Amino acid sequence: MPVVLRIERDAAGRTPLLEAAAAAALAVCLDPRAQPGGEWHEPVATWVGDRIRKIARRARGTHWAAVQDVPGVTVDVAGAQVRALLPGPVDEVPRVVSRLQIGGTDLPTDQPGPPSPGSPVIWLNPAVAMTVGKAAAQVGHASMLYAATRGLTMVPSFAVRTADREHWAALCAVVERGGAVVVRDAGFTEVEPETITCIAGPGDHAAPGTSSEPR
Fold this sequence. Notes:
Blueprint: E1 2-6, H1 14-30, H2 41-48, E2 55-59, H3 61-67, E3 72-77, E4 80-85, H4 95-98, E5 121-124, H5 132-150, E6 159-162, H6 165-176, E7 181-184, E8 196-201
Helix pairs in contact: 1-5
């Protein structure tokens, strides 16, 4: 699944961009067109049944406008925009998408504050440094897994944060009890195979004083 991040010269914050990425990836899967009988059902079902690999690319200006014509869903969170595209074979990516840059996609640290009460939270691993492109792919995995375990049919407003190390240890314990879902990376880029990149759970697992960036 290509995930296109809109990063203009006056780019939106890192956290809302990741929250938009989490929502966009899931939105494609829950779109009516991806349901049985819909025009997207076969490619989405094939992808979900195999590896849910995502490749984040960045776009601005006319390139961002052009990618809106490629089948997918665009999500806006506080001015940060991400478009998740219909998944398919890597060698069949449309030219307007394949020309977009993959590597080096990053944004500065921001301070989003505590998650909104009741919002599901995707927590990034505080011990793992990831570019915003890598993190966008990981939170997209997390939102899908979270939705699948809870049978969601609508996209919630995900919060994305990075826990401090103490809270991360507590979250891992929650995972062991079945109260949250975990994303283990395949190790294609940036991190070692089987690295836990993020954990997604209900908002009641939120902890005060967390930041949006790995330490």
